[in-house]
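User: I'm curious whether this sequence folds into something compact or stays loose and floppy. Could you predict its structure so I can see for myself?
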Amino acid sequence: SGFLHFLGTLGKFLSPREEGNISEMRRLFIRAGYRSPKAMPLFFGLKVLLALSFFGASMAGKLFFWQKMSPAGFTYILIILAVVGFYLPNLWIKLRISSRKEQIQRGLPDALDLMVVCVEAGTGLDAALNRTAEEMKKTAIFLAEELGLVILEIRAGKPRQEALKNLAWRTDLDDLSNLTTLLIQTERFGTSIAQTLRVHSDFMRTKRFQRAEELAQKMPIKLIFPIGLFIFPVFFLVTLGPAVATIVK
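Assistant: Here's the prediction. I'll summarize afterward.
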């Protein structure tokens, strides 16, 4: 649309020119799930637009609400709001990457179990990856998307080891990196893929159970603040309120 074209044109002036910076930004966009070449110009265009919007909002606030504010204080607010608007897209990218990694991590044990079933049924590793990607679309769409990209790269002629390395690079997950390393070593040394996947699947299942236990153990500590802030005052009001009223009378 015209608005996206305007953002892209605006962002081209701020887009990095050095190849190292470009590669780093592309890596962040890929891990966030944005693979279009237009993602980088749109990202920087949005940064400029938000900075200008926050700048304009602060000027409007000065005209209608902050007439008595000192020039120095208004200048500080102006700068802070413009900087906040400029860096909001960076925060969005980080949150997007974190959410995507969490969903992939959550679906990985189930995907491993499905791959074990497929390989032990006699299918090859490529067919098992393809079948897992198809079945995981309903429960772990991001993991299914990444596995589908592995299959597409292999079908395009890329070696399987390189496609698996790209999977680990795109996701930036330790568990998935360990899995790809195991698969590469299994293919290199000719050991049983089914046995390797089963052992790693058992390990991932145990690790998921331990992670759930860890979260459960942290729960009482996290409940201290809401209990102290919301429950204890009401409890004291209900229990001590009648006694205080009686004493006052």
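Summary: The mean pLDDT is 83. The radius of gyration is 27 Å.
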